[in-house]
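Predict the 3D structure for this chain.
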Amino acid sequence: QVQLVESGGGLVQAGGSLRLSCAASGRTFLIYVMGWFRQAPGKEREFVAAINWSGGIPKYADSVKGRFTISRDNAENMVYLQMNSLKSEDTAVYYCAAARRYLGSNTYYGSWYDFWGQGTQVTVSS
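Done. Predicted structure below.
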């Protein structure tokens, strides 16, 4: 199995920045795609960003394009989410997820991911 642990969440003012980290351990050779999802209070979980473990063009939700950047460090088994120009609507619990296969158009759907972290809270004050 793969274990995922997020860190880096916190309280930030609107317009500020945060960098989330996700540390993968265990059978990391199983990982094909790494993604970030978020869930705000009273709302469904939504896709934020994803990247193939081997590289390629990252995918982003329209709501974060141009503000968030996903990156990976295969040597350290880490995935990052750099979040800039944060807005109050970015407030949510952010989850790291991993999939064992190529997802293609299913990249945007959490149900296709096999492993999940516990989440880290991001609160943006206006």
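The radius of gyration is 13 Å.
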